[in-house]
Amino acid sequence: PIINKEYPAMRASQYLLATVKETPSDAETASHQLMIRAGLIRKLATGLYTWLPLGLRVLRKVTEVVREEMDKAGAMEVSMPVVQPAELWLETGRWQTMGPELLRFKDRHERDFCLGPTHEEVITDLVRNEINSYRQLPANLYQIQTKFRDERRPRFGVMRAREFTMKDAYSFHMNQESLDQTYQVMHATYSAIFSRLGLDFRPVAADSGNIGGNTSHEFHVLAYSGEDEIVFSSDGNYAANMEMATGTLPPLPQEASRRAKHEVATGDAHSIEDLCTHLSINATACVKTLVVQGCDAEGEKSGELIALYLRGDQTLNETKTAKLARVLSPLEFADDEVIEGTLGCKPGAIGPNSKCAFSYADPSVLGLVNFVCGANKEDTHFIDANWDDETRYDEVADIRCVQEGDISPDGKGTLAVKRGIEVGHIFQLGDKYSAALKATALDENGKSVVMSMGCYGIGVTRVVAACIEQNHDEHGIIWPENIAPYSLVIVQVDAHKSELVRTVSEDIYQLAQGLDIEVLLDDRDKKTSPGVKFADSELIGIPHRLVISPRSLADGVVEYKRRGEADKQLLASETVAGFVSNLAAGENS
Ligand code: ATP
Ligand code: MG
Known about the structure:
Blueprint: E1 10-11, H1 30-37, E2 41-45, E3 48-51, H2 53-72, E4 76-77, E5 83-85, H3 86-92, H4 94-97, E6 104-106, E7 112-115, H5 120-130, E8 139-148, E9 163-173, H6 176-196, E10 201-205, E11 216-222, E12 228-233, E13 239-241, E14 262-265, H7 272-279, E15 287-295, E16 301-311, H8 318-322, H9 336-343, E17 358-361, H10 363-366, E18 371-377, E19 380-385, E20 395-396, E21 415-430, H11 432-436, E22 440-442, E23 448-450, E24 452-459, H12 460-470, E25 472-473, E26 476-477, E27 488-492, H13 499-514, E28 519-522, H14 530-539, E29 544-548, H15 550-554, E30 557-562, E31 568-572, H16 576-584
Parallel strand pairs: 1-28, 4-8, 16-17, 17-20, 27-28, 27-29
Antiparallel strand pairs: 2-3, 5-7, 6-7, 8-9, 9-24, 10-11, 11-21, 12-13, 12-21, 14-19, 15-16, 18-19, 21-24, 22-23, 25-26, 29-30, 30-31
Helix pairs in contact: 1-12, 2-6, 2-12
The chain binds adenosine-5'-triphosphate and magnesium ion.
């Protein structure tokens, strides 16, 4: 349980309760607006935020939950520097491969440093020095600490900031089996953490980048404002992020007999949309051709162009496409001049059998009969084209974004697509960093083995924003009980006019403290109207509210309201103490 000494009771008159009435103009999402308005955070500069007293209480509680569950899972807490020497990043090659997200600088001796966006290099350096035997493994080390990423588009407040708090853990193993075990433990630990935080979340399979294998999961909080799309099967357990998800497009009925293809002039109808209007057809009857840059066997840009065929109504999945052997990664679309110069025709009329060096066809085009496609000739398309000796592709590859209603890859029902906020990410790294940094340990036979690694991140500051996205209404935040900054707010009304209001609210304030209830007494003077106090209590989202006013006391009652519920309750004055004791015991919630 969270101990009250760390979260003292407070009088609003002496507290930095920095609530704001107006919605800040640069805040697009509910959580960003509410975090500013409720006085949880303040912006210092783009992507940099100060946590105010009220916000910090929430952040610390989230941190405590994360720490407790990590400790329970046997992980060991450490604290590594934010500033990291370039040498380690040169050893793994990331000094060169990381883009401008890595903030680099020099110290007074002209030595290169960076601000840590993540800590694989530093932790692996520590472990290669400190651990050298199988007896010390497996080991799981974590920290809860500041990260800096010079994000291209910092936005949504602390949701995508430049400086943020991450819990990052790194595990080290003698073999894959041991890594698998810890990975499962971390998966379960993350589920426990996000459940305790009261979040509606889903773990989904994620793209594991260039390391391969199905060894990465993201934890997403479901929210309409989420930046990511996540995919689930309706009846089975299949869940993946959009980058990675596969599914089968339900086939559409096709004509029984194939006709012979012929050219039509399509003028300036270059987009699929214009083409469909021009020919009065459906996008589902078209093959859309996209042209990207190819790569050689080493993965370097080859200058060759690669054609991609998709059904006209479908969208390209850039992550899946960039993984194809002949396609340059990161994906690079060929620009119009290159296409015209190399293929002899503007992009709008490119189709199968162009001068592209290679072509991939998505399964969505395979069953099409009598389709429309570019004729590789200015302002011209084919009608009634069919896959045959004349109209060809080189290889079939899944390059499509799945869509709602696709058949699930586990065969269990159909796919649904929802929006999510990535709050956690777990990953099997294998020997990517341990090999580069030569982190080895001796096995039972005295043989040196490169350790296997896992890494596990939680965006602790992002969790606070994600929680607000899921828990708010038009009046403000509705905190889940266990991370609310205060559990009870006592609102004094007209205390300057009533001695009784002062003594009754003071008594309850003392009683609540004695019961270890985190309590805020809104004792601001008459310059703060009762209306403002009520609005503020809703805005900052305290779960329980008692209102002490001269009028209700005269009637022998105290008003109680649970945040998020519409109805108020009138408590007979003599029952209030008992009610507060029940609050402490968690019986009124
Ligand atoms: P994203 O895809 O959102 O950019 P990422 O994949 O780069 O995140 P990881 O490297 O997996 O992030 O970092 C672990 C966790 O840190 C993420 O799951 C996320 O919750 C959090 N995080 C990452 N970048 C930011 C940021 N700019 N601001 C706040 N939290 C972040
Ligand atoms: Mg991630």
